[in-house]
Amino acid sequence: MYYLYSTTKLLNAAGNPLVAVPSDPVKKFDGLEFASPYTTDDTVIIGYVQYYNSPNYYMRIYKWTKVGVLLTQTDICFSTDYKDEYNTNINKVYIGGSSIYLDGTIDILGYYTRTDPATNETIYTNKWLRLNSAGQLVSTLNIKPKLGNSTWFATKGMDSGNIERRARIYDFRRGKTKIYLYYNGLQGGSSFWQCISPDGNLVEPMRKAFGYKSGYGSYCYIHNILGTDRWLERYTYYYSGNTMSFWLNNLLTSRPIGTHTRLTQTVEKTEANTMKVQYMFEVDLLTFGEDYY
């Protein structure tokens, strides 16, 4: 049985319920994908919705008081090119607003392309851009895929000299201290996940999958448990007759593999201390390839 403790009605600027109005040029894009108390200010609720208004892609960010009165509404257009040093436009592959609850930023992942004059091959330069809630660029980080100490890349024909030609960024997952990047294989390469720290240092060079692979007929949604490196995966499975079943898997991606003891300090055997000591160990068992349990 579930109990409803409290509710907050989120209002628009006119003090009315936040409902899309198809006939209104502004309110027709109203909606809500995510909403949460803002982590840096517990007096504010923040939420956003992403929408497309031809020919541009937008994110509308709302901020409310704790009782649901609208404070601000900001529309951010993502048609900006964010050119590189070669005056090339970025190819955006991911725009996400979930990180706005962590540190107030919006994540944009993408890549630039140029042709290597020596080999006539395409080189992909991957970037992670971060915008604040007003749409201003806060930081830019190069996210070149790295081999690390993994020997897996050699089996797929990739090395430090060609990995920029054979992999480009395609997807992104962000936790508190770990960033998971999915690189799509190109030009004879192979697809893979990597894990980096927020400042770009390599944590884990190769991962076959991130999360549980659901079967045929299901739709997966992976959610970060805010402020942690743990994840929840929800998926819906459709049976015959359009009946649905909802499943949750708890993903553990920080790998605390090891043993623990409940003793407060080490017990040493001496001439005076000859009693028998029984130890109890707790062992974390995980599936290494996908880290779910």
List descriptors:
3 helices, four-stranded antiparallel sheet, mainly beta, 17 strands, 293 residues, globular
Structure description:
The protein has 293 residues and is mostly beta strands. The protein has two domains: 1-79, no CATH class; 81-210, no CATH class. The chain has three helices and 17 strands. The chain has helices spanning 100-103, 152-155, 163-166; strands at 34-37, 44-53, 56-65, 70-77, 91-96, 105-115, 122-132, 137-142, 167-174, 179-185, 192-196, 202-207, 218-224, 230-238, 244-252, 259-261, 281-283. A four-stranded antiparallel beta sheet has the order 1-2-3-4, with no helix packed on it. Strand 13 (218-224) and strand 14 (230-238) form a beta hairpin. Residues 286-293 have low confidence and may be disordered.
